[in-house]
Specification:
Length: about 425
């Protein structure tokens, strides 16, 4: 159990400055004066937290929450969580895609042309999909046509055709992951309510299935289970009780994320994901933009820099091109949590603490282990954590993926290169 520590009545925090990019950082705040326990919600789940991570998160709650003299309910501190593999184990987009394939719920593309589903779909992929999935009606018979199910699963899951040819090309790798976007685009023709029905059915199946379960899609086997992390559910509960404004920002389609987020009592208004343009009450294959990206341009989703844009626009109220830029520290989220390179930008923007679940993602782990401002918390995944990565993370050479997909060194805000980092927080390492 967490033991409340009586904090000193006064403490001093030194201000840190990150040079060169506007990523101005505020030092992790000093402990707040002691307050009655009833006013300071405590984290109750201890198992699974690494080192002093739980204690530092508790200090964040005590410093910025209602029990702090500085708390202003008119300007609540902001906490932002990624969803898949951050709040839960496994991927809710995958779960819904697999359910739709098993139940024949993917619509036949407009005019039978698969290129209408994604502007980034390559000619070989469009040809392979057309061959495997001939248009026979409003929906594709993926329950019985295993070749069609296999081809869609390969393009979505691997980014290649079933024969290994690249399925997507020509996209900005810091704003778009076309495989993630493709799920949202394949929801074309359904209403938001129906998509939520699909997600709810997939959720029920995946939560009921035993840990490690697989399901058959086409001729292959794929992940068939999911679990909420008790530690994250507890953290979200405590943050909300402490008066934080808690949001989920996911690279899954927004209606799907909304269904799952209810399980941690985060409502639809506080859930952000990939959004489709709608027409006459039904989703289209076009996607809503952000910042300077117009609706239907399909070139930015809630992915890396796109997550930053979505937070700035939909939470902070920043409009236009400015939403794509780092905002002043006083406006930004105090806390952020993520597990993948897709979360790097909004994690870096957090001014208090940044919680990372280690899934061996190169750029994210380079920045977290570098930990120049001492605000990064690294934790093994709470269920089936990965073991130690034997080779160092290639931070100084190929850890960063540029907008055109080329690999480059991971650089700090001042332009200096981060040295290769050894993996030290992983499954089996000492935890609290």
């Amino acid at each position: 159990m967490f033991m409340k520590i009586k904090h000193p009545l006064a403490a001093v925090a030194a201000a840190l400055a990150v040079v060169g990019t506007g990523l101005a950082a505020t030092a992790e705040a000093a402990p707040a004066p002691h307050r009655p326990a009833a006013k300071c919600p405590a984290l109750t789940v201890s198992k699974g937290w690494y080192g002093d991570n739980k204690q530092r998160l508790q200090r964040l709650l005590d410093t910025y929450g209602r029990c702090s003299d500085a708390y202003d309910k008119r300007h609540k501190p902001l906490a932002v969580f990624d969803w898949d593999n951050t709040v839960i184990k496994n991927d809710v987009g995958d779960a819904t895609m697999f359910w739709m394939l098993r139940h024949g719920k993917i619509r036949t593309p407009e005019r039978g042309d698969w290129r209408t589903t994604s502007r980034y779909l390559t000619a070989p992929a469009a040809k392979a999909l057309a061959k495997a999935c001939p248009a026979t009606g409003r929906t594709l018979p993926t329950r019985t046509n295993t070749a069609c199910a296999d081809e869609i699963a390969a393009v979505y899951g691997e980014g290649t055709t079933a024969t290994g040819k690249a399925a997507f090309a020509g996209f900005d790798h810091r704003r778009m992951e076309p495989q993630y976007a493709w799920l949202a685009q394949l929801l074309r023709g359904w209403s938001t309510a129906r998509v939520k029905d699909f997600a709810a059915a997939a959720r029920a199946e995946n939560l009921a299935a035993p840990i490690g379960a697989e399901q058959r899609v086409g001729t292959g086997k794929v992940t068939g289970w999911a679990r909420y992390y008790d530690q994250q559910r507890d953290l979200i509960r405590a943050l909300k009780k402490a008066g934080f404004d808690v949001y989920v920002v996911s690279a899954s389609p927004e209606p799907i994320a909304e269904v799952w987020a209810k399980g941690v009592r985060v409502d639809a208004r506080h859930t952000i994901g990939i959004r489709n343009v709608t027409r006459e009450g039904r989703l289209t294959a076009r996607l809503k933009g952000c910042g300077s990206v117009e609706d239907g341009a399909d070139s930015m989703i809630t992915y890396i820099d796109g997550k930053r844009c979505a937070i700035n626009e939909r939470i902070l109220g920043v409009r236009g091109k400015a939403a794509e830029r780092v905002q002043p520290a006083a406006k930004r989220q105090v806390f952020a949590a993520g597990d993948s390179d897709t979360d790097v930008s909004f994690l870096r923007d957090a001014t208090g603490l940044r919680l990372v679940l280690n899934r061996n993602k190169a750029e994210l782990m380079c920045r977290a282990y570098d930990n120049g401002d001492r605000r990064w918390l690294i934790n093994p995944m709470f269920i089936e954590p990965k073991g130690k990565q034997s080779a160092p993370y290639p931070c100084a050479t190929t850890g960063y993926t540029g907008r055109d997909g080329t690999k480059a060194p991971v650089r700090r805000a001042d332009g200096s290169v981060i040295a290769d980092q050894q993996d030290s927080v992983y499954g089996g390492s000492a935890t609290s």
